[in-house]
Amino acid sequence: MLAAAELIRRGELVAFPTETVYGLGANALCGQAVQKIFAAKGRPGDNPLIAHVCDMRGVEPLVARIPPLARRAMEAFWPGPLTIVFPKSGAVPDAVTAGLDTVAVRFPSHPVAQALIERAGCPIAAPSANRSGRPSPTNAQDVYADMQGRVPLILDGGACGVGVESTVLDVSDGPLILRPGGVTQGMLEQALGMPVRVHQAALKPLEGEARSPGMKYKHYAPKAQVVLVEGAPEAMARRAAQLYDEALAKGNRPCILGTEELKDIYGERAFYPLGKRAQPESIAHNLFAALREMDRRGYDAVFCETVEAQGVGLAIMNRLVRAAGYKIVKG
Ligand code: TXA
Ligand code: MG
Questions:
Q1: pTM of the model
Q2: Which residue is closest in CA terms to ligand 1's atom 13?
Q3: Where does the chain bind ATP (predicted)?
């Protein structure tokens, strides 16, 4: 930990665990250090980063002001998987915000992330610690697979709890979820006492201008072709089984990504468990590691069950439609 904090202070990169996914961190107040993140990830320079802080007051030097709605959201959900977009202060380098006049800030709840930020003595800018376009890493091995030779140190904190990235909330024009995540629309509505909108790009390809630059990039994709199957659970499973059989007959190496509840319908077909339909949190927790496992096992055609786009299910479907390049068939 001390070595990790020292690396951050010296302007180097450190990969570290958070409660959502692993991050690739650098001193958020040092433009040169932050540039190294973009190089290591192969990330487009116009996609801004989240600045991570280790207490409520850490946000103050980074922002021009704290809007009242942001304050309420901070009090309800920090520390935790919620990122809030603020008007930025002059202290934040352009490399972090990709030249925007706003800055995204998050106070993670993971003790290792908190200790690293505290000991480094500066806010830490960090995107997910994957190579750009790949599924986010939710354990240290998956960080290593993408980042070996590109980052001097990976802090291993075991598997991440939430498994999908933080919810990104914009409050500049009423509360708007730019990226659904662990803190759900319902949880935000309850805490803020008002309707919270979800950006139209949550489940569809982006039309028009990107409010959040991350929206316009391909994401989360394994090398295998992923096809999502929609419908009532049993019909969905039968359709996935049929698509699997067709792919096998064509000489592909198919696999079904599905839930425990429907597993028996697949019989002897190659199946990888995503979790329990009745516990969508378990699916979020397993999702990215499961997508990565498809590549490791050499599957080239993945047929994946869908879940209802509600609560945590919205965050899951947001990642799945991108992994599938929006390819969805009906059950
Ligand atoms: O859970 C998480 O948020 C993880 C962990 C490491 O904290 N981080 C993460 O970072 O997912 P990244 O870079 O993969 O995603 C950041 C998202 C992108 O969609 C980006 O476009 C958006 O936040 N974002 C960053 N700054 C923004 C800003 N000023 N305005 C709007 N969106 C912004
Ligand atoms: Mg990312």
A1: 0.96
A2: 127
A3: 43, 47, 102, 128, 136, 179, 220
